[in-house]
């Protein structure tokens, strides 16, 4: 039995919603229909895609890898559909895109790969830097677009923006950590925990404001700009971290499991924004890229999470 687009769409929806019931509501079908599609898909692939638990489902390691391929397939189908009435001349040109370090590692590769497949004659020049400098380049006309993590109310008045997604914060823990037994974790429970701080994009400064509001700060045992270093140290039991869902992956490079739990307190979410300079008309290639980036967020849902 061959794979079908319907099976792939149902699988992607379950992965994004974190439960079969949630996916069924989004897809407007019965739970039994989704369950049957997943069963047939797992039988065809020959391995489990999900582990079942009381709160829903979580991707297995092979399921996580399969999801990345499925997302690319579904996006390519969408891009191909949109191109059916477009003139070939509209697919040529160039634009300059700015990204922050987190976006460069966790958002850009997927979008850029699909865009270049769809529009191979468009040249995309990439610039990576921190939000403050990308703002300067946008306002100065050196960038056509920028994608970054930040708070929406901090966007310069000279720039327009669209929200690609909102990523809530989670506590990252090693597998078997005592706090992992809790459904939600209060940040006050981290007062005595060794803390791994990620100094990248606006993440560290925003968490600094959170600690100040709570009138305490956990002991930072390591500060790094490397997300992989944070992941490995947390998975090995050297500390905990509080980071957006956007950059969460369930495994370290060494193959150790990383648990995550929702934060009990209400925290400012990390907004994933695509930005441009107001008053300037975007060229066709840049507009197509932004459309594809926003389609990515619409497919994944406004919230960049899988609960």
The CATH homologous superfamily of the largest domain is called: Periplasmic binding protein-like II
Find the CATH topology of the largest domain.
D-Maltodextrin-Binding Protein, domain 2
Question: What structural class should be given to the helix and strand makeup?
Answer: alpha/beta
The Cα radius of gyration reads 20 Å
Number of helices: 10
Features:
single chain; 307 residues; alpha/beta; D-Maltodextrin-Binding Protein, domain 2; 3-stranded antiparallel beta sheet; 10 helices; globular
Topology:
Blueprint: H1 5-17, H2 20-27, H3 31-45, E1 50-53, E2 56-59, H4 61-82, E3 93-99, H5 101-106, H6 108-118, E4 122-128, H7 131-139, E5 145-150, E6 159-167, E7 169-174, E8 195-198, H8 203-214, E9 220-224, H9 227-235, E10 241-244, E11 258-262, E12 270-277, H10 284-300
Parallel strand pairs: 3-4, 3-5, 8-9
Antiparallel strand pairs: 1-2, 5-12, 6-12, 7-10, 7-11
Helix pairs in contact: 1-2, 1-3, 1-4, 2-3, 4-6
Organism: Acetobacter vaccinii
Domain HTH lysR-type: 3-60
Protein name: LysR family transcriptional regulator
Give a short summary of the structure.
By secondary structure, the chain is α/β, with parallel strands linked by helices. It contains ten helices and twelve strands. The strands form four sheets. Strands 4-3-5-12-6 form a five-stranded mixed β-sheet, sandwiched between helices.
Please give a structural write-up.
This protein folds into three domains: 5-81, Orthogonal Bundle (Arc Repressor Mutant, subunit A), CATH 1.10.10.10; 86-166 and 270-300, D-Maltodextrin-Binding Protein, domain 2 (3-Layer(aba) Sandwich), CATH 3.40.190.10; 169-262, 3-Layer(aba) Sandwich (D-Maltodextrin-Binding Protein, domain 2), CATH 3.40.190.10. With 307 residues, it is α/β, with parallel strands linked by helices. Helix 1 packs across helix 3. The protein has a five-stranded mixed β-sheet, sandwiched between helices. Strands 10-7-11 form a three-stranded antiparallel β-sheet. It has helices at 5-17, 20-27, 31-45, 61-82, 101-106, 108-118, 131-139, 203-214, 227-235, 284-300, and strands at residues 50-53, 56-59, 93-99, 122-128, 145-150, 159-167, 169-174, 195-198, 220-224, 241-244, 258-262, 270-277. Mean pLDDT is 86; it is low at 298-307. The chain is built from ten helices and twelve strands.
């Amino acid at each position: 039995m061959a794979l079908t687009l319907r099976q792939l769409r149902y699988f992607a929806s379950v992965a994004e919603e974190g439960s079969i019931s949630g996916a069924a509501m989004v897809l407007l079908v019965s739970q039994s229909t989704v369950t049957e599609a997943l069963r047939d898909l797992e039988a065809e692939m020959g391995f489990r895609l999900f582990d079942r638990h009381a709160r829903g489902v979580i991707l297995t390691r092979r399921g996580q890898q399969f999801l990345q391929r499925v997302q690319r397939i579904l996006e390519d189908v969408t891009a191909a559909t949109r191109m059916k009435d477009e003139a070939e001349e509209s697919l040529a040109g160039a634009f300059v895109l700015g990204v922050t370090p987190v976006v460069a590692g966790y958002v850009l590769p997927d979008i850029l790969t699909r865009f270049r497949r769809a529009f191979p004659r468009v040249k995309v020049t990439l610039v990576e830097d921190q939000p403050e400098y990308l703002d300067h380049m946008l306002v100065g006309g050196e960038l056509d677009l920028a994608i970054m993590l930040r708070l929406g109310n901090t966007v310069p008045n000279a720039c327009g923006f669209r929200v690609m997604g909102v990523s809530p914060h989670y506590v990252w823990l090693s597998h078997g950590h005592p706090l992992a037994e809790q459904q939600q974790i209060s940040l006050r429970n981290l007062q005595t925990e060794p803390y791994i701080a990620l100094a990248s994009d606006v993440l560290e400064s925003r968490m600094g404001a959170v600690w100040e509001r709570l009138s305490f700060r956990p002991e930072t045992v390591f500060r790094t700009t490397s997300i992989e270093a944070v992941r490995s140290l947390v998975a090995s039991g050297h500390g905990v971290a509080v980071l957006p869902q956007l950059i969460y992956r369930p495994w370290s490079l060494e193959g150790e499991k990383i648990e995550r739990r929702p934060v009990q307190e209400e925290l400012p979410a990390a907004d994933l924004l695509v930005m441009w300079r107001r008053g300037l008309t975007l060229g066709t290639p840049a507009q197509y890229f932004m459309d594809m980036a926003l389609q990515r967020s619409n497919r994944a849902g406004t919230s960049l999470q899988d609960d």
